[in-house]
Amino acid sequence: MTRTRAAATSTQKAASIREERLARDGRRRRPRRASDNPLREGLRLERVPDPHTMVLFGATGDLSHRKVFPALAQLWRTNLLPAEWHLVAVGRRPYDDESFRAEVGTALDRNSRVALEPEVARQFLERISYHRGDFDEVAAYDSLVERIAAHGREHDGVANVLFYLATPPSAFPTIVGQIGRCGLDHEMRGAGWRRVVIEKPFGRDLESAGRLNREVGRVFREAQVYRIDHYLGKETVRNLLVFRFGNGIFEPIWSRQYVDHVQITVAESLGVGERGAFYEETGAVRDVLQNHMLQLLSLVAMEPPAAFAADPLRDEKVKVLRSIAPPPRGRVTRDVVRGQYGPGWVEGVAVPGYRGEPEVDPGSETETYVAGRFEVDNWRWSGVPFYLRHGKRLPKRATEIAIQFREVPHKLFAEADMDPQPNLLAIRIQPDEGIMLRFGSKVPGLGLDIRPVTMDFTYGSSFAADAPDAYETLLLDAMLGDASLFTRADEVEAAWSIVAPILGTWLDAPPPAFPNYEAGGWGPATADALLSRDDRRWRRL
Ligand code: BG6
Questions:
Q1: Is the predicted pLDDT of residue 246 greater than 60, yes or no?
Q2: Which helix (H) or strand (E) holds 118?
Q3: Which of 8, 43, 209, 219 has its CA 20 to 30 A from that of 322?
Q4: Is 229 close to ligand 1, i.e. is its CB under 6 Å away?
């Protein structure tokens, strides 16, 4: 991304200070060596953020322990955090620095992508201090100001601050308001940058998302706000942009002229587990369709941006979202299907139905499955349906985007023994990350038999490298001031506008007889009917 000369100079200065500190710390830079695999050569550009203090609200929570600390520790392990980095963990529970570090140490042992050397873990934990306080406790913020200032004095005037809100969403407005009250948001001359990362869910409907945007906007400028959708940090999702806009041959066929329809699947074999209380308030539409799936759709459907930078990219995504006509309320029942799993078997294990999960109402009407037919009403995509489906307790975990191309216009081989499967491009987001192209091929022999064959790219075999976790990518980007992979205020609201009529209709209409699919099945029969009505069917995964 473009950076100003001043920022570049200060980064260079910071880099040289960092070098000195690294040497002092005993943390050495990763030795640069030619990779064994030529495809990996030069893959990782080392980008190091400015020195800063990170303030993590909700530091004792599950998300921080499972995702945020392990991601930060990986960044530290790979020398991507500045030596002058320090984290203030804010939480309500009564820890002191030592006991909290021990707690984080345990979380790292449990959740690290790559185990940390004990010395590296020690150095990382040393940079964490604990700040006890309730989110609405004014004094806790006043002492936070002091703590941040003290850290700045100790570390060559480091004044950059990254706030990270990993709390329940109900606390977002309070925390942002308090940050504003004590002036911690101010980016005055010489006071360094101030940014805020806000976790999902961002609102629970269009109205509350708009309200939250306004509340955040009273304190921070939009350019300071980083709304997380972790799907955007996934390596395969980022590669969608490269696949589409870093190659010349796909763009010309990426339109209604060649594409018959698109299927996007986010299938999970897990149920709601211990998150019953959260899920009761959320459901599949709010949890995954409104954010992760509409993000995937917009990346598939967007126009090439004018530049690979945050605003041009997000402008194009917003245009897609605005081109999706929300289903009129009268059409919701026809175009969107909801389901809830009953008891069944998943991967050979008997599992309870949703209504039997902990903290779930035995008569719950919350949907654990959603499938819908959407259209992007613009020049490129008019008339091409995008079928989206997501569910819990499906037979397997699989996230995939399938671009189904049209059949050949003239059946030259009408006489041939042919398995008539049109071309298909399947982008596997997870697991088994890769891209597959299906085409017809003549079976060797004297006759004319045609069968589908595939060309397959898998990340594992081509790069033989572990991808970073989405949180590593996103945290690093926020520290670097690159908002490309974060959702903008208008984008979040545009996505809520699409699902608003669905939620509204369902609120008023009684749900179908739930449960309506067995755990371990591919969702309710009505989801199949959604496609068979158009003479199509879901891809078997
Ligand atoms: C989260 C949802 O945002 O995404 C979860 O709250 C869901 O319910 C998860 O399971 C899926 O993410 P991933 O990375 O496991 O595909």
A1: yes
A2: helix 118-126
A3: 219
A4: no
In this structure, the dihedral spanned by the alpha carbons of residues 495, 497, 498 and 503, taken in order and rounded to 10 degrees, is: 110
- Give the span between the Cα atoms of 163 and 524, in whole angstroms: 42
70 preceded by cis ω (within 30°)?
no
232-469+488-532 CATH pick, 3.30.360.10, 2.60.260.20, 3.40.120.10, 3.40.50.720: 3.30.360.10
Q: Domain boundaries in the chain? A: 42-199, 232-469+488-532
The Å distance, Cα 44 to ligand 1 centre, comes to: 27
Task: Please give the Cα distance from 321 to 212 (Å, whole number).
Answer: 20
State if residue 235 touches ligand 1 by the CB under 6 angstroms criterion. Answer: no
3-state secondary structure of 426: strand
Supply the pTM of this predicted model: 0.89
Query: What is the radius of gyration, based on Cα positions, of the chain?
Result: 25
CB atoms under 10 Å from CB of 441, counted, come to: 12
Distance CA 19, CA 23 (A): 6
Q: What is the pLDDT of residues 149-184, one digit of tens each?
A: 888 888 776 789 999 999 999 999 999 999 999 999
User: Has 292 been annotated as catalytic?
Assistant: yes
Of 62, 200, 229, 288, the residue with max ligand 1 atoms within 8 A of its CB, to mutate for a pocket test, comes to 288
CA 304 – ligand 1 centroid, Å: 28
Torsion angle defined by CA atoms of residues 276, 278, 279 and 281, in that order, rounded to the nearest 10 degrees? 130
**Rounded distance from Cα 358 to ligand 1 centre (Å):** 19
Q: At residue 386, what is the residue type?
A: F
Residue pair 523/394 in contact by the 8 Å Cβ criterion: yes
Cα within 13 Å of Cα(345), Cβ side: 3
- Mutation to probe ligand 1, out of 227, 264, 268, 286 (largest number of atoms < 8 A from CB): 268
Per residue in 468-514, pLDDT tens? 999 999 999 999 999 999 999 999 999 999 999 999 999 988 888 99
